[in-house]
Amino acid sequence: MILVVMGVSGVGKTTVGKILSQQTGWPFYDADDFHSPENVAKMRSGIALTDADRWPWLDRLNALLRDADQRGQSAVLACSALKQKYRDRLARELREIRWVHLEGSFELIKARLDARKGHYMTAQLLQSQFAALEPPINALRIEVTGDPATMARDILATLPAPRPGLPT
């Protein structure tokens, strides 16, 4: 199973994804680590990425996930996946993919981004992310007002039994 933790920047995708990885024993991948240097430079400068910027990035992520899936491995991916066409690209040729949409108010997420240091995604791009977001239809929706450990527990509880990392 491929579990994708998605949402706008600042919702806690990486934090929750790492907890899920620790609890399941599945490898964790942060989509941010797979951006090209050019994409990072654009975002650091406050320039939103275009679809043309995203396609090679999404294809790299899909190849990574397909490789895991073909080897019978599960994985956790933290990725914005804001539009349906991006999710479709990520999911190509995968046998089982589950979407977890972390969501919160603009004000809450902006406050988190304003407090975050050392990340290339700036609060000024947040409005463009909210504008681009196409909420997924078939996803588990998790409100980000709780603590990350509780969110991860709630996500794990939705996985089919036997739940990885949990007693059966």
Task: Describe the fold and architecture.
α1 crosses α7 and α3 packs parallel to α4. This protein starts with a strand and ends in a 12-residue tail after the last helix. The protein is globular and about 40 Å long. It is built from 7 helices and 5 strands, in the order βαβααβαβααβα. The model has no long low-confidence stretch (mean pLDDT 90). With 168 residues, the chain is an alpha/beta fold. The protein has a 5-stranded parallel β-sheet with strand order 2-3-1-4-5, with helices on both faces. The protein has one domain: P-loop containing nucleotide triphosphate hydrolases (Rossmann fold, 3-Layer(aba) Sandwich), CATH 3.40.50.
Instruction: Give the H and E element order.
Output: EHEHHEHEHHEH
Instruction: Please mark out the parts with pLDDT under 50 across 5 or more consecutive residues, or reply none.
Output: none
Helix content: 40-55%
Structural class: alpha/beta
Quote the CATH topology.
Rossmann fold
Largest sheet: 5 strands, parallel
| Overall tally of structural domains | 1
In round numbers, the mean pLDDT is: 90
Put simply, the count of helices is: 7
Can you tell me the CATH superfamily? P-loop containing nucleotide triphosphate hydrolases
Q: Report how far apart the termini are.
A: 18 Å
Evaluate the radius of gyration.
Answer: 15 Å
